[in-house]
Amino acid sequence: MASEAVRQRMVRRLAAQGIADERVLKAMGAVARHAFVDGALAAQAYEDTSLPIGLGQTISKPSVVARMVELLLAAPALADQPQARLGRVLEIGTGCGYQAAVLSHVTREVYSIERLRGLHEKARANLRPLRLATVHLLLGDGMQGYPAGAPYAGIIAAAGGADLPAAWLDQLAPGGRLVAPVQSGNAGQALVIIDKTNRGVERRFLEAVNFVPLKSGIA
Ligand code: SAH
């Protein structure tokens, strides 16, 4: 299949760009990104670019998805199990469902929440044929997290606000890691990772990123 070869080329590019975690490279190679975007954009699906998914939202670049999932898997709780799956994960911003599908390959369970009904339904339709029994799609305001599924071994956000909602940290398990874009002073958005360790909460700012805004309420 042509898309398979193009996707494996994308995986080799990700490895060349520094993604080293085999779990992540395998997951990126397993999920058909072209099946998550409109037909007219499918030819671009394996380029390293973000693409529109409707309602003013975008699917992140493959390199950003791979980078964030790699960071998530480096959670303190998994430090001595470099091959293992992460436990239960909360994703804020389901969008078209692509990253949720990637996460299903490297975690035991995924709760993914989206505030826009149109995208929640699009993700449902995109994921249905994949029959991923461990992915749970929720319509709701992810700024509240999703307490019913807590605590989470990992939390990953695909939308960025001025601050990290307190609910996310509350719902993170000991040893868990949160990866999210957040406003970083006047410098624009940056990725932040937060680890809940037995020494306390540790926060680290990483590279600049450019995610859609985190908004409250459902629409
Ligand atoms: N992971 C997605 C990326 C989608 S873009 C994918 O693979 O396609 C980010 C998404 O976050 C948008 O769909 C936007 O509607 C959603 N979003 C923004 N604020 C939100 C909130 N408070 N709760 C849930 N979703 C939110």
Automatic annotation (TrEMBL):
GO biological process, one term: protein repair
Signal peptide: none
GO cellular component terms, semicolon-separated: cytoplasm
Subcellular location: Cytoplasm
E.C. designation(s): 2.1.1.77
Keywords for this protein: Cytoplasm, Methyltransferase, S-adenosyl-L-methionine, Transferase
MF (Gene Ontology): protein-L-isoaspartate (D-aspartate) O-methyltransferase activity
Lineage top rank: taxon: Bacteria
Annotated active site: 60
InterPro entries hit by this protein: PCMT (IPR000682), SAM-dependent_MTases_sf (IPR029063)
Family statement: Belongs to the methyltransferase superfamily. L-isoaspartyl/D-aspartyl protein methyltransferase family.
Function: Catalyzes the methyl esterification of L-isoaspartyl residues in peptides and proteins that result from spontaneous decomposition of normal L-aspartyl and L-asparaginyl residues. It plays a role in the repair and/or degradation of damaged proteins.
Protein name: Protein-L-isoaspartate O-methyltransferase
Species of provenance: Pseudacidovorax intermedius
Name of the gene: pcm
